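Lecture 7 notes: from sequence to structure.
We start with the chain below.
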Amino acid sequence: MGKSGAELLGVRPAGQGDPNCLWAEEKLRNQEEQYRNLIETMNEGFVVLDAAGLISYVNERFSTLTGYSRDEILGRPAEDILDDEDRKTLKAQIAGRMLGKEENYELTLVGKAGRRIHVIVSPKSVFDGEGRFKGSFAAVADVTLLKRAEEELRKSEKKLRLLSSHLLRVQEEEATRLSRELHDERGQDLTVLKYQTRFISKKLRKDQGPLKEACEELLQRLDESMEKVRRLSRELSPYAIQHLGLTASLRHLVEDFGKHTGTRISQDIENVDTLLTSEAQINLYRIFREALTNIARHSGADRVNAGIIRRDSSVSCWLEDNGKGFDLRKARAEGTAAMGIGLITMEERAKILGGTFVIQSRERAGTRISIEFPVLQEV
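Predicted structure tokens for the same chain:
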């Protein structure tokens, strides 16, 4: 092989050439031989650049990686095997190395046959005894397969997100249809029954007291059933958004939750109606409703704080309770069964909004859910 990387850079170890240090030179040669064997047998590529950025040494792995023989690549500028964008990256990295800055970074090598090889470069600067920059050497790890796997994973995630979005949209359409049927048809049927029962009650004679009482009891049950139908219809489809707007609907949702559960409510919900598309409004409403349902079912909380505020070009939302909380790390480790479909659906809806979904919880210390997403619509 000849010279070591340090020799190729023109750096001579202290004492080299001194007749009185022959034993030290012999020891150094043995060490260099060991280093050469190590470099030649390493799994990563190894390349040495001189101060001008010319390739002065590559190991066999680097040669195999690029498809260039050593004779074809030695003495050439390193930028010859890079595209325009990565040439800028290398130039900036070498400028940093001249100042002693060393950091791992990514490059895409262009091999002999035009094949693109994604690599991670781990560089090291070399200076002489007087502190002059003499060049650098670097280990070069091929991560092409990893990059391809990451790209395939991103494509799969995108497809899953589209599928998830489509399923939620279909679910919303079906819920809207059922809501309309409950409100318009079953609700009307109950209203007709109520009026008929009231008509019969008025026609009863005074001596038909038991029948009159039965009619009154039936009227009461019909009122209860109508209220249940209205509530179920609202839960299936937040039609109030269309009539009241998102902000008013959310405020009503939170206040209604407090009334039905006896929970003390504090809220700071700003008007965000003009900031979101109609689909985004429904998704946000669903997140809040699901979160409140979880609080009612699992938290045991007696205080809830809810908020929505705008921050520049984004919207921040939160729901926080003082309930029993849970071990979040343990729940994540156990997967879907422990986390619950509700939390997973909320997270998915937040992603559809293009935002982030964060859960913070500790046992006996309550739970906080935070959502942040970009403004999706301006007026």
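Points to note: The radius of gyration is 36 Å. The chain has three domains: 5-142, 145-237, 241-379.
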